[in-house]
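Worked Example 4.2. Consider the chain below.
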Amino acid sequence: MIRTDSLTRDFGNNRGVFDLSLSVPGGEIFGFIGPNGSGKTTTIRMLCGLLRPTAGTSYINNIEVTPRNLPQIKKLIGYMPDAFGVYEQMSVWEYLDFFCAAYRIPGRKRKPRIDEVLELTEAAYMLDYQMGSLSHGMNKRIALARTLLHDPEVLIMDEPANGLDPNGRIEMRRMIMRLREHGKTIMLSSHILPELSSVCDRVGILEKGRLVTQGTVKQITSSLHEKIVLAYQIGSDRQVAAALCKAFPNVESVASAGNEMRVVFAGTRDHIAELNRMLVEKGVRLMAVHEEEADLEEAFLRVTGRKA
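Applying the procedure from the previous section yields the following structure tokens:
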């Protein structure tokens, strides 16, 4: 549904976006990760037709983003920027009705559509509120409602959870998941990594204008997992199990508490099987064992070469 081929916007002095090639299947949530200044917003502006690339191409639902095709592209895309202007003297109803007119939605269809988007964003109670009286979290909901008015197939959201409190982030995440259930393809730009890892089907990491990796969260974290962390539940003498693990080749550290033991292992997966077999042969009762997954934040720090 979203595709770029060597998309480039060169501002000079090594600033911009360079040779960006990514693909977002229809009906998925794609997380676009990068620090401030990495080129996320520049990429989004090119996808929306608001900024012309220096080189390369981009497509929305197989329609190339060009000046000639902009009328079609604008119907397909709903863009929710991080910051947006409001008419503070308007009520929420007047504000959304104004944008219905901008989207050329016929008058008889506006009220049903406004009611529908307010229900989707759980903002129906704000209908008569004045725009200037809304909190930051309320503003985000109305911004999303406005983005949905023309029923776009693709939603591009720039930092949707930025500035929200924990409850607001949870609510925004729930709304995003609901929109995917309605068949929307969603591209989220954010630097709040835990938020993305919990909702995204796929992610791409951007650093200094270049895409350094993309794939599912599991694919990315697995490919970067230099060390394997094993979590054990022990049903026998924990101190004996810990001593046996410490003496095993490629075990870097062992920490234990209660009946749980955490082992940092730098060997191969074949060696893990040998470790488990050795523990059982030595009389250690293994109640459970699993590998801890690396998280998206750790993956981001590794691929960008940044320190925590």
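The chain is about 35% helix and 30% strand. The domain at 226-292 is CATH 3.30.70.100 (Alpha-Beta Plaits). Compare this with Example 4.1 before moving on.
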